[in-house]
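Internal QA ticket QA-208
Title: Verify multi-chain structure generation after dependency bump
Assignee: T.L.

Test input:
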Amino acid sequence: MLNRLISQRRARQFRRLLRNGKLTLLCLVLTVVVLRGNLGAGRFGTPEKDLDEIRETFSYIRKHAEPRRALVEPSKGQRQRNKPSGGTENGSKNDAEFDVKKILKDEDDGVEEFKRDSTQPYSLGPKIENWDQMRDEWLKKHPNVANFIAEKKPRVLLVTGSSPKPCENPVGDHYLLKSIKNKIDYCRLHGIEVFYNMALLDAEMAGFWAKLPLIRKLLLSHPEVELLWWMDSDAMFTDMAFEVPWERYKDHNLVMHGWNEMVYDQKNWIGLNTGSFLLRNCQWSLDILDTLAPMGPKGKVREEAGKLLTRELKDRPVFEADDQSAMVYILATQKDKWGDKVYLENTYYLHGYWGILVDKYEEMIQKYHPGLGDDRWPLVTHFVGCKPCAKFGDYPVERCLKQMDRAFNFGDDQILRTYGFSHKSLASRGVKRIRNETGNPLEEIRDHTGVPSLPS
Amino acid sequence: MLNRLISQRRARQFRRLLRNGKLTLLCLVLTVVVLRGNLGAGRFGTPEKDLDEIRETFSYIRKHAEPRRALVEPSKGQRQRNKPSGGTENGSKNDAEFDVKKILKDEDDGVEEFKRDSTQPYSLGPKIENWDQMRDEWLKKHPNVANFIAEKKPRVLLVTGSSPKPCENPVGDHYLLKSIKNKIDYCRLHGIEVFYNMALLDAEMAGFWAKLPLIRKLLLSHPEVELLWWMDSDAMFTDMAFEVPWERYKDHNLVMHGWNEMVYDQKNWIGLNTGSFLLRNCQWSLDILDTLAPMGPKGKVREEAGKLLTRELKDRPVFEADDQSAMVYILATQKDKWGDKVYLENTYYLHGYWGILVDKYEEMIQKYHPGLGDDRWPLVTHFVGCKPCAKFGDYPVERCLKQMDRAFNFGDDQILRTYGFSHKSLASRGVKRIRNETGNPLEEIRDHTGVPSLPS
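Actual output:
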């Protein structure tokens, strides 16, 4: 029996070795490309585009490799409880156990959500044609709620959110909590308001498409908001001092991290990133949302749209339509219509792919300082593919969670520093004092750029 | 074997019945008191004080009854893993399982945190004597960062927080997430800034005492803040429209929900609540923090202080010193020193005990409206004793979590309503449309009091 177990285990290890061997070979090839990319990288900014290609290639690999294990492999009892079932959980349940699924069961679970006639074209809402004029009129009537909070500083609403259900992964909600704390800190320092969404406004537009009905609703309900900043829940601020160069975008309505060539020339599906973007509150924005939306409705429409996008875009894997691919497609195929109002920003990390940033934090601390926003000190570190809330992500869960802790602490240190504290290390939850109190608190006040509040 | 299992089970059931019988008798007695209290309740405000006594009596009962089961009874394997151990987890661990404790193990876990000489009196920091003057000077030098953001409207910083560790209860972090979203919503509507703390600034002052070093640090670092509003993570806003009557407190430095007689005459440990309070940024506040702090340091000091407080206060159970009991004690024994600057508020629920509120939400919706803040529509519903983050709380976990969902939805509906949505019921995560879009978005804009933005 023991011998049989040992040989079964060896067979599994051998098969895993083979699979990893193929991956290793591919990694070697990509390493060469990385080196090539590094040698040719621009002075400061965000790394050459091929590095992002590598990123997404890895992501593609992982999507098609063995599914990553969840954080904790469910015990046999839990696996039985987690099997989809129509009714309440019974069977192996111990009388002494509270069934968490029963407690958290929502009375609407499983009820058919949407009844729209799917042969009719999808719409985000009644067509609005003159929002610019309506908004101007409203602003004139409400001069005390201006759309600019200071000269050249627009009123910005940062919008993010997550599912109203607890995460399938037990620690997922803890990372969502740290992520919103991180956003609260940045926004407090920069005079930005926060909206955390936990409501699915349109069941047809679930998943990544849920942001469209939400964004439209918020724009129309808040005419005082000049710019809406959408930010994914898996993106964190890692430069607490960097102020977005608002003036740079005064003639643009949509700002995303990306590269013109990758979008307009290559139609590369990762030519831009919709995990962190700025959208102006205007008619143009309503129009582009209306243009994107038809690819979103769950089911056949989204699947077919996904096939179109895979066909039309460079390097896109096979999966249902997502809003980022749709954006690349719309911009690339309707450049004349939208292009002049879209700013693809790459001089700082409005979105920064975590894979190429997180191992460099210590080096950044050594060499640089907050306020740069770019590859020296990234504004945003975005954990694409990690999916801490889900059972499975695209990357090893241990790496994701450890790196998310480091990114959080990297940003948090910039807050704690103003109070004379710092994390003991980037890996540590614990904090230590880095500045003794003097009894003269005014001397100790630092603003968020680290500048003392009063000249000494 | 089966017969033996059945008889063991019956024996357990019988013993449980006996225990519950004692509880049932006590509940009957208390029900009579409740009725008496209800018949004598004031017109509007917050219920008669004896109801809170009942609350705390129940809390006391539960503290001494069978410990409440956690949300999910750990499996045998998990129980072994969760046993405190000095090193890494081994033994029964399956190779295929990721050990969540290993992944989340903080390199500082178990390291002795504080080395202060405990024979020396504890201090929150160097003694500051002239903070009022220092603060005035700072405000004069920074006229663009005024301590009043509008006439009669002070700059308020709402401070809350939770542990940097994931909750022991798997769904605890989800409730912390909903709680901070709730606070973000209220504060956005009321021009209040938020600080979410996840750092333990002083390891000796862990637990409920952690707020003291934090509050002191924030007051001294933010002279622009006029009032600091501490709010527990288990308290939620349930009246999104109610504006705190700031002017009422212009001559006071500390505002808590409570009753003068219960504090100054009875020295009742629940005569006030420190789960939600306002503290002015001034020398007086630094002084009262300094006065409370000596009861806080973990270990012998806190235990001995706890015994003193149990002896001196009415109805206080036996446990280590907590900040609320310390506050009652200090105020009651030093009334001449502090009393004139303390406002014990009970005309609205700056803190509202959840037990007497949550079953009435539907009735409130029927009869009343947001903006009242009192027992008709409570400003704050505070889930004292529920402890969703911990393994065990003072109340049945199912009741706590379901009621926290209801309270969250009750508050969230007041936000969603402005966008034309509502939860399907107070128990449901799902939302439904309650107002169709017309194509004229300005007509649909409601401010947070529900008043249309433009006259129709």
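Spot checks passed. The domain at 131-445 of chain B is CATH 3.90.550.10 (Spore Coat Polysaccharide Biosynthesis Protein SpsA; Chain A).
Status: verified.
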